[in-house]
C-alpha cells in the first residue's frame, strides 16, 4: 500500500488554539489510523489487502477527545473521503482518496 499525506506546517505543532482553548493536537498518524479504520470497516469489510493507495490532505488539527466523522463516496474502485470534527463542524481532512485493488 502506498500512503501520501499533505500536511500544512501549522497543523504539526504540539498544541494549537482550537476554538477558545489551547489543546493538545493528535498526531497525524493517529488521525489517519482512525480514518483508515473507518474505510476498512465501511468499504473493505476489514480486508486490508483491498487497499492499493491511500492519500489525504490534512487541513486542520484534531484535539484529543474530539469526535471525527468520515464521509465517503465510492465510484468503481476509487473511494473519496473527507473527515470533520463533529464538535466544531470543521474539516481536518479534505480531498482524501483511497484506491482499491481491482
Radius of gyration computed on alpha carbons: 14 Å
Helix content: 10-25%
Tally of individual helices? 1
Report the order of strands and helices: EEEHEEEE
Report the structural category.
Answer: mainly beta
What's the CATH architecture name? Roll
Cross-sheet strand order for the largest sheet:
1-4-7-6-5
Total domain units: 1
CATH topology description: Thiol Ester Dehydrase, Chain A
- Strand segment tally: 7
Distance between the termini: 14 Å
Summarize model confidence as the mean pLDDT: 82
> Going by CATH, what is the homologous superfamily?
Hotdog Thioesterase
Low-confidence stretches: none
Quote the beta fraction: over 45%
Highest-level CATH class: Alpha Beta
- Overall outline: elongated
Largest sheet, strands/sense/barrel: 5 strands, mixed
Put the structure in a nutshell:
The protein has 1 helix and 7 strands; from the N terminus they run βββαββββ. The chain has one helix spanning 28-42, and strands at residues 2-6, 15-18, 21-24, 51-58, 68-75, 78-85, 90-100.
General description of the model:
- The protein has 102 residues and is mostly beta strands.
- The chain has a single domain (2-100), classed as Hotdog Thioesterase (Thiol Ester Dehydrase, Chain A, Roll), CATH 3.10.129.10.
- The protein contains 1 helix and 7 strands, in the order E-E-E-H-E-E-E-E.
- The strands form 2 sheets. A 5-stranded mixed beta sheet has the order 1-4-7-6-5, with helices on one face. Strands 2-3 form a two-stranded antiparallel sheet.
- The model has no long low-confidence stretch (mean pLDDT 82).
Amino acid at each position: 500500500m502506498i500512503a501520501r499525506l499533505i500536511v500544512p506546517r501549522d497543523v504539526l505543532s504540539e498544541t494549537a488554539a482550537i476554538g477558545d482553548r489551547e489543546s493538545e493536537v493528535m498526531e497525524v498518524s493517529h488521525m489517519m489510523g482512525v480514518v483508515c479504520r473507518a474505510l476498512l470497516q465501511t468499504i473493505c469489510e476489514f480486508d486490508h489487502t483491498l487497499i492499493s493507495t491511500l492519500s489525504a490532505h490534512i487541513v486542520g488539527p484534531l484535539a484529543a477527545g474530539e469526535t471525527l466523522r468520515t464521509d465517503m463516496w465510492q465510484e468503481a474502485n476509487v473511494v473519496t473521503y473527507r473527515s470533520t470534527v463533529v464538535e466544531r463542524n470543521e474539516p481536518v481532512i479534505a480531498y482524501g482518496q483511497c484506491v482499491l485493488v481491482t
